[in-house]
Amino acid sequence: MRDRAGSGVPDEDEAEPVASERDLDARTALRTRSFWIIAIGLAGFWAYLFAMLQHFPLALVDAGVPRELATAHWANAVFMGMFSKIAFGWIADHLPAKTSLLLDYGLLAISSLLLLGVSTRGDATIEGFVLTFGFSYAARDVVTPLIIAYCFGSRDLAQIYGVLMLTILIGPLGGTFAGWVHDQTGSYQVAFETLAATNAATFALLFAVRDERRPRCARPRALASGSRRTRRCPRALRASPRPRDLPGREPRRGRRRPPVRSSSCRRRAAA
User: Fold this and answer.
1) How far apart are the first and last CA of the chain?
2) Residue 131: which of 54, 76, 66 has the closest Cα?
3) 122's torsion region: left (phi>0), alpha (psi -120 to 50) or beta?
4) Is the domain 38-208 a CATH 1.20.1250.20 member?
5) What is the pLDDT of residues 188-242, one digit of tens each?
């Protein structure tokens, strides 16, 4: 590595990126609200994905779709997922991380609503499900690392991502639940309605995801008033400049108050 002008400092292009000091480690991220919201969203996603992997072609067959055509619909959904990562990667480059996350899970919620019409064997409904589900299920691999970096920083991104991926253990429960409902009722309708409600709830919950690296303190007006909330946030008090520390302002010199004299002292002074 060459030094710039022999100064011993590496070139900027060759310098390794340094994580911000505000980035959270895995243990601190576990105590935040956004971590558990993302975990709940991933748990719902895995349950939905496993249920579709095991039962979507069978649901089409139950609706009267020929087995070969049902298999072809599922193959098209998987084929869509192969290109959705590239397409969603380009979209994520032009949108904020939280917006990309909401777009992905919003498409998943729409696909679960279209899934409710599969039993009627509507061709438009089936094709709509294939497009929305195929485009959104594989995009999870794109948006999850982005939202982790947005909420917690990139210093411990791999560790936080690994802990969140433990939610995949919940996935088989979705397939088991859908199969149990079919055995009990002879139809997947109740299972699909439950999955649709779960996807809608997780999508709404993801709006509460935030950047956990920012201190949650009172506003500057509250800092000046010295409210109870301000006293709970000493970091904000240290960070907020005092009036005498503002640039371009000279320190005020205190005025000495005149001494208080008694009446006898005033009479002597008058004499």
Assistant:
1) 89
2) 76
3) beta
4) yes
5) 999 999 999 999 999 999 999 999 988 765 444 544 445 444 444 544 444 445 5
